[in-house]
Amino acid sequence: MTAAIIRPVTPEDLAALAAIEQACFPDPWAVSALGILTAPPYGGLCALLDGAVVGYVGWMFIPAGDGMAAEAEITRIAVLPAARRCGIGRALLDAMIARLRPDGAPLSVYLDVRASNCAAQTLYASCGFVRHGVRPRFYGDEDAFEYSLHL
Ligand SMILES: CC(C)(COP(=O)(O)OP(=O)(O)OC[C@H]1O[C@@H](n2cnc3c(N)ncnc32)[C@H](O)[C@@H]1OP(=O)(O)O)[C@@H](O)C(=O)NCCC(=O)NCCS
């Protein structure tokens, strides 16, 4: 269980998100790229501990239409190393799903993850995601595993 506060990403959060990117990814997104998270079809939630942003999740959302259920693609999820294994990653995913599915309507969530990223894959599996495919050399140096969750 985490005591983190989770709320929508605002433009004022983007520098903190860029710092998280620097700490968590070999190909960090800059503030200019992260700006998409503040307007549809993209969105994002950040997690705060003691007033500091320590993690975030970003997505692209496609509303239901033409007989198709709503879909979301997770673009990024990251938690600063010092704040990991406290339930923040899972809390961000739970909050994202609750936000995109307030009425309990069908929702499919998709994501790609590096084949070597066991921590993220264990997180996704613990949240009910299922591995359904592989994208060979998707990251250039590495395959991507495709995960999905159908609610
Ligand atoms: C993946 C990541 C977001 C997880 O964040 P987190 O806040 O540590 O995750 P949680 O504490 O909510 O963990 C939830 C569950 O995920 C699994 N998990 C998380 N980190 C794990 C690890 N290092 N090893 C094994 N299982 C792990 C566990 O099942 C854990 O439950 P438990 O702690 O009760 O055993 C974090 O490790 C991270 O930011 N990694 C770098 C960025 C990244 O790889 N993002 C994903 C890109 S696709």
What does this structure look like?
The chain is an alpha+beta fold and 151 residues long. It has a single domain (5-150), classed as Gcn5-related N-acetyltransferase (GNAT) (Aminopeptidase). 25% of the residues lie in helices and 36% in strands. The chain has four helices and seven strands; from the N terminus they run βααβββαβαββ. The protein has helices at 14-24, 31-34, 88-100, 118-126; strands at residues 5-8, 42-49, 52-62, 70-79, 107-114, 130-135, 144-150. Strands 1-2-3-4-5-7-6 form a seven-stranded mixed beta sheet. Strand 3 (52-62) and strand 4 form a beta hairpin. The chain is globular, with a radius of gyration of 15 Å. Bound molecules: coenzyme A. Residues 24, 77-79, 84-90, 113, 117, 119-120, 122-123, 126 line the site of coenzyme A (COA).
State the gist of this model.
It contains four helices and seven strands. With 151 residues, the protein is of the alpha+beta class.
Looking at this structure, what is the CATH superfamily? Answer: Gcn5-related N-acetyltransferase (GNAT)
CATH uppermost class = Alpha Beta
Question: How many helix segments?
Answer: 4
The number of domains: 1
Structural Rg? 15 Å
The span between the termini is: 23 Å
Mean pLDDT over the full residue set: 95
Keywords:
binds coenzyme A, alpha+beta, 151 residues, Aminopeptidase
Describe the secondary structure blueprint for this structure.
Layout: E1 5-8, H1 14-24, H2 31-34, E2 42-49, E3 52-62, E4 70-79, H3 88-100, E5 107-114, H4 118-126, E6 130-135, E7 144-150
Parallel strand pairs: 4-5
Antiparallel strand pairs: 1-2, 2-3, 3-4, 5-7, 6-7
